[in-house]
Design brief:
- The protein is α+β, with helices and mostly antiparallel strands.
- The chain has one domain (about 15-60, about 95-170).
- It contains six helices and eight strands; from the N terminus they run H-H-E-E-H-E-H-E-H-E-H-E-E-E.
- The protein has a four-stranded antiparallel sheet with strand order 3-4-8-5.
- The chain is globular, with a radius of gyration of 18 Å.
- The two termini are about 30 Å apart.
- The model has no long low-confidence stretch (mean pLDDT about 80).
- This is DUF1877 family protein.
Length: about 170
């Protein structure tokens, strides 16, 4: 059951980015430490524009892996129950395993984000800039179009190119 008063209060108090930061903060599995990731992002706000923590989404998905990740997330959210620390039963609050960071397409920024992936012990770190050979021509063109001049500067006058860095933990 949804508590509308609580939702209204949360919606007025927090940005979508803060809500995702809270989801990441509470996750810990294998080598992933959400508190460490959010602390580093908080200390380096110049490295990112936005981030999203979710299951991986594949452009070409003949096996339904992306949809399976969505189903896993929906089931985990449906079955979640807050439990005391002393309980032997613990539910996964948000079963994501992939962090996507939108950032400006600058070598120094991308390099620092790749270094964070090593620090965070990510199993895989990839750069999505629309140039990868794994994407088909139509998808490459769409990605390039979306990422080119995608970011406003502070004045709103100059547009900057973007890339997405993805971090995946097994």
């Amino acid at each position: 059951m949804l508590d509308l008063a609580k939702i209204h209060s949360i919606a007025q108090s927090y940005s979508p980015q803060e809500l995702f930061a809270a989801l990441i903060w509470q996750r810990r599995f294998n080598e992933f430490d959400g508190e460490e990731v959010i602390t580093d992002l908080s200390q380096n706000p110049d490295l990112w524009v936005s981030f999203l923590f979710t299951k991986p989404i594949f452009a070409s998905d003949p096996d339904g892996l992306s949809f399976g990740g969505v189903i896993d997330t929906l089931i985990a959210m449906a079955n979640y129950r807050p439990m005391p620390e002393t309980s032997i039963i613990h539910f996964i609050a948000y079963p994501a395993d992939t962090l996507f960071i939108l950032t400006e397409n600058q070598d120094t920024t991308v390099s620092q984000l790749l270094d964070l992936g090593k620090k965070w012990r990510a199993d895989s770190v990839d750069i999505c800039d629309g140039m990868s050979e794994e994407y088909g021509f139509r998808l490459k063109r769409r990605l390039l179009t979306r990422l080119t001049k995608a970011l406003d500067d502070e004045s709103g006058m100059q547009m900057r190119d973007a890339v997405v860095i993805s971090y995946w933990w097994d």
